[in-house]
Structure formats: C-alpha cells, structure tokens
UniProtKB/TrEMBL annotation:
Principal subcellular localization: cytoplasm
GO CC, one annotated term: microtubule plus-end
PANTHER family cross-referenced by the UniProt entry: DYNACTIN 1-RELATED MICROTUBULE-BINDING (PTHR18916), TUBULIN-FOLDING COFACTOR B (PTHR18916:SF85)
Ranges of residues in domain CAP-Gly: 175-212
Alphabetized UniProt keyword annotations: Chaperone, Cytoplasm
Name of the protein in its database record: CAP-Gly domain-containing protein
Record's keyword annotation contains Hydrolase: no
C-alpha cells in the first residue's frame, strides 16, 4: 500500500497538484505550504474536501503534531488553505483592497477621453471595434484521430498520463484553436468529457481532460498502472 497521496492544494491565490507522504505531520506540511501559497505557517487553516467544488469539509487539520494519515487523506482530495490573518501576509496585501482609495469615472466621462484604451481601440479598430470577418477560420489538420492511444506530457518527472483520444476539434469553452479530448486510463483528469455544461465525449468522472495538441503524443501506448510508491522528499 502506498505511503503517499496526490492532492490538490487550493488557497486564495494559488492552485496546484502535489504529492505528500502520509507520515508527514501537519506542522511539516504547513512549512511546505508556506512556500506554495505564501501564507505564513501561523496563519494557515487547512481543511480537507473530497473535491474542490464541495461545500462541506470532511476533516480539519487542526493538530500540528498529527501525521496526514491520521486524517485518512485519500488520492485527489483537496486541501483548502485559508489565511486567518491576511493583513499580515504578502498575499493578503495583494488581495485586500479595502484600504485602497478608488478612482471612479462614469462611462460617459470615460468615453469622452482621447487618451484612453477605449479611444485607442476605436481609432485603430481593435477588439470589439474590429471589422468582422465573416469567412470561417480554417481548422489546422492534425495527425490525431479519435480512438488513438496517446500519452500526454506532464510537468511531473516520470509521471506518464496515458489514455485514449475521444475528441478532436474546436470547443465553446475556448474561442480559438483545436483541443484534444482525452479519456485517461486512471482518475487523473478534470471532468467526464463535458465542460461548462456541454458534452464533447463520455467517460467516467475524473477520467476526462482537454489539452492542446502540442502536449499529446499519439502511438502504441499500452495501459500502464500509475506507480504511487515513490515518496516525496
């Protein structure tokens, strides 16, 4: 049985996927999280959620001397880190704008200014003022077909994300470019083939993901079980 787990770490300013040894104490975890979230150890309040969208926490890591395993931490749960005193932390200074005096300008006054971004866009026909091109944009031809086995590049060394291509084409959640929909062999994805209420393919929850073509390598990649035995040092 593996002694480490992969979890999602979420704070007011960060979101990342990390792997931790279950023998690590909460206090040691907080020291690591300070480098990731910018929240001082003394200000951290860590709660465990089954998913990032859940409103109810399943555990609160309130005892610094307890190991992570004491809280029955499982694969791909979410650790939400709250800053209990944001006024004393660097991230709090960035996000707390309550003391900042606001400069307000009405829409009519802003439209009259000639030195604004709006005036520049109007003069040069940029953005929403650009002349519309009614001709459809060509979709680049890719050497990727639905049903192909593939391997998706990962930021983690020696971590292979293998699966099957289930979708190739443009999407409504991104205005430009082509996306590859992948059904992973393991529950390491972000969806079930649907994004923002629109379905592009069907797979099990947490098995689906959409990636850019340059991250996908198509080939004879057999199903490979992910080895979670390597502990984080």
């Amino acid at each position: 049985m593996s002694n480490s787990v992969s979890v999602f770490v979420v704070s007011p300013d960060t979101r990342s996927e990390r792997r931790y040894d279950l023998h690590l104490t909460v206090g040691q975890l907080k020291s690591k999280l300070e480098m990731i979230t910018g929240i001082p150890v003394a200000n951290q309040q860590i709660s465990v959620f089954n998913s990032e969208d859940d409103a109810q926490a399943v555990a609160h890591m309130s005892e610094d001397s307890r190991p992570l395993g004491f809280y029955s931490l499982r694969e791909f749960q979410t650790l939400k880190v709250v800053d209990t005193n944001p006024s004393t932390s660097f991230t709090g200074q960035l996000t707390d704008v309550s003391q900042v005096e606001k400069f307000e300008l009405s829409n009519e006054e802003y439209a009259k200014r000639q030195d604004s971004v709006l005036a520049y866009k109007m003069r040069h026909k940029v953005g929403r003022f650009a002349e519309e091109d009614a001709s459809p944009q060509p979709i680049p031809k890719l050497d990727v077909t639905v049903g192909s086995r593939c391997e998706v590049e990962s930021t983690e060394e020696d971590f292979k994300k293998r699966g099957t291509v289930r979708f190739v084409g443009p999407t409504n959640f991104a205005k430009t470019g082509v996306w590859i929909g992948v059904e992973y062999d393991e529950p390491i994805g972000k969806n079930d083939g649907s994004v923002q209420g629109e379905r592009y393919f069907t797979c099990l929850p947490s098995h689906g993901a959409f990636v850019r073509p340059d991250r996908v390598n198509v080939g004879d990649f057999p199903v490979e079980e992910i080895n979670f035995d390597d502990e984080e040092m």
